[in-house]
Write a structure and sequence with these properties.
This protein has 97 residues and is an alpha+beta fold. The protein is 55% helix and 16% strand. Helix 4 (57-64) packs across helix 5 (68-80). The longest helix has 18 residues, at 35-52. The protein starts with 5 loop residues before the first helix and ends with a strand.
Length: 97
């Protein structure tokens, strides 16, 4: 699930259109995710929290086959959006949707 450097290969206007349409989601200035990939990551978090009560960055990294470089920004993005909340080393689910 690690993102690829799509923005490096796509015309900036195409990236803007995809962002405007909600096809791509900007995680931070360097990272874009396809909306379906982000939704899949959110579902993994829901499942893990349902099973374990919380999720750590390392567990999320392992579940997604990603690296910490990409896992942590996604978790921080979801914290900022109110989907999860960081409590120590773990994230708990805030949004049950």
């Amino acid at each position: 699930m690690p993102p690829r450097s799509a923005s490096a290969r796509l015309h900036p206007a195409l990236v803007r259109v995809a962002l405007d349409r909600g096809t791509l989601v900007r995680i931070n200035e360097e990272v874009l995710y396809h909306a379906s990939t982000l939704a899949a990551a959110m579902e993994l978090i829901r499942q893990e929290v349902a099973a374990s009560g919380a999720i750590t960055a390392s567990r999320f990294r392992d579940l997604t086959g990603s690296s910490r470089k990409f896992a942590v920004p996604v978790l921080e993005f979801l914290d900022a959006r109110g989907f999860t909340r960081r409590v120590g080393d773990q994230r708990i689910l805030v949004e049950q949707a």
